[in-house]
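User: I'm curious whether this sequence folds into something compact or stays loose and floppy. Could you predict its structure so I can see for myself?
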Amino acid sequence: MDEAIKVAVKGARDAERGIRVALADVKPWVGDLPATMAFDSAADVYRHTAGMLNIDGAKTLHPDALLPVIKAQPRPGDKAPAKTATIAMDSSVISKAQKLAPGLAHITIAR
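Assistant: Here's the prediction. I'll summarize afterward.
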């Protein structure tokens, strides 16, 4: 019986540690979640955060996918990514490409 209690206590401590790590992981996106919110697992924390961020399929995403999807979201206050410049191609590059693949000559660029 003592061994079963030790295993149960260790499991509860590991789950609590996972929940605390999850709360720290999502803090940049949702801030401090109130202590009145009870979570049974780290996956519950990530799923709740995904719902708060209006991520499509937040209720059905696999638990392992939740954190990477959350990390892909912009954080509040982040600047929008700068637009990348279009790289120009001079005629020498185009002619080299047409020599490698003659069918490219039939493709036109809409302007």
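Summary: The CA atoms of residues 87 and 93 lie 12 Å apart. Residues 2-30 form the longest helix (29 residues).
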